[in-house]
C-alpha cells in the first residue's frame, strides 16, 4: 500500500505551498509517518544515535556569530574538509568514499547554483526509502541548525542528482542540484 500511495502523497506534498502553513506541516508529518516503517533497522539505528549525539553537542556549543553548514557538517561527521560547500565533493575524491546512495551519517554535497553560489552540505539523519531522507543541517534556514528536514530525490533517474528540501513552513522548495554523498 505504501508504494501505491507514495506518488499521490508526494503530489500532495508538492501542492502544500497552496495550503495554510499548519496544514502543510500536518501533511509533511503524515508523509513522514507513512514512510517511517520503511526505515532500515540495525546499523542505521546505531549510526543515527551516534549522529544525534554529535548534533546535540553542536547545538549545545554554537559558534559565535553566524552558523554555517560547513563547520556543522565537519563537526558532526568527522569529515575533515574545509572551504566552501561547493568544493567538498571534489576535495573528498581520494580522501573519503563517495557515492550516490544516501546513508545515515553521510554528507549530502549540494552543487553550486544560482540560488546557492557557495553550495551547501547537509548530513543524512535517516533514510526513509530509496528516494526520501531526512537531514540535519545548518543555515538552510538562516543562522539555524535544523534537524530531520525532509529531502526528496526528484531526479529523473532516481540518482539523487536533484532534490527538493522542505522549507521552514514544511513545504518543499525549489529543485537543488546534488553532486552525491561523502561517507566517513
Looking at this protein, list some descriptive labels.
CHAP_dom, Papain-like_cys_pep_sf, CHAP domain-containing protein, signal, single chain, endopeptidase fold (from Nostoc punctiforme), alpha+beta, 7 strands, 6-stranded antiparallel barrel
3D structure, described in words:
It is built from 5 helices and 7 strands. The chain has 184 residues and is an alpha+beta fold. The chain has one domain: endopeptidase fold (from Nostoc punctiforme) (Alpha-Beta Complex), CATH 3.90.1720.10. Strands 2-3-4-5-6-7 form a 6-stranded antiparallel barrel. Strand 6 and strand 7 form a beta hairpin. Helix 3 crosses helix 4. The radius of gyration is 16 Å and the shape is globular.
Concise account of the structure shown:
The protein is an alpha+beta fold. The protein contains 5 helices and 7 strands.
| Relative strand content | 25-35%
Instruction: Write out the CATH superfamily name.
Output: endopeptidase domain like (from Nostoc punctiforme)
Q: What is the fold named in CATH at topology level?
A: endopeptidase fold (from Nostoc punctiforme)
Series of secondary-structure elements, N-terminal to C-terminal = HHHHHEEEEEEE
- What is the number of helical segments per DSSP (H or I, 4+ residues)? 5
Main beta-sheet annotation: 6 strands, antiparallel, barrel
Low-confidence stretches: 1-24, 33-40
Mean pLDDT: 85
Shape: globular
Helix content: 25-40%
Any idea what the CATH architecture is?
Alpha-Beta Complex
The CATH class, by name, is Alpha Beta
**Helical/strand content category:** alpha+beta
Oligomer: single chain
- The rounded distance between the terminal residues' Cα atoms is 35 Å
Count the domains. 1
Radius of gyration: 16 Å
Number of strands: 7
> Biggest sheet: strands side by side, in what order?
2-3-4-5-6-7
Organism: Fuscovulum ytuae
Signal peptide: 1-24
Pfam family, one: CHAP
Keywords: Signal
Amino acid at each position: 500500500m505504501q508504494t501505491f500511495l507514495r506518488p499521490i502523497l508526494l503530489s500532495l506534498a508538492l501542492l502544500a505551498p497552496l495550503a495554510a502553513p499548519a496544514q502543510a506541516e500536518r501533511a509533511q508529518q503524515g508523509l513522514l509517518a507513512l514512510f517511517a516503517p520503511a526505515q532500515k533497522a540495525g546499523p542505521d539505528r546505531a549510526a543515527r544515535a551516534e549522529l544525534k549525539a554529535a548534533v546535540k553537542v553542536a547545538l549545545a556549543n554554537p559558534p559565535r556569530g553566524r552558523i554555517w553548514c560547513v563547520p556543522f557538517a565537519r563537526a558532526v561527521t568527522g569529515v575533515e574538509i574545509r572551504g566552501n560547500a561547493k568544493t567538498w565533493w571534489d576535495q573528498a575524491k581520494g580522501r573519503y568514499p563517495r557515492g550516490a546512495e544516501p546513508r545515515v551519517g553521510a554528507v549530502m554535497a549540494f552543487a553550486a547554483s544560482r540560488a546557492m553560489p557557495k553550495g551547501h552540505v547537509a548530513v543524512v539523519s535517516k533514510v526513509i526509502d530509496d528516494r526520501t531522507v531526512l537531514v540535519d543541517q545548518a543555515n538552510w534556514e538562516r543562522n539555524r541548525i535544523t534537524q530531520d528536514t525532509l529531502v526528496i530525490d526528484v531526479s529523473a533517474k532516481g540518482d539523487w542528482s536533484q532534490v527538493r528540501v522542505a522549507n521552514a513552513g514544511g513545504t518543499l522548495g525549489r529543485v537543488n542540484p546534488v553532486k552525491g554523498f561523502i561517507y566517513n
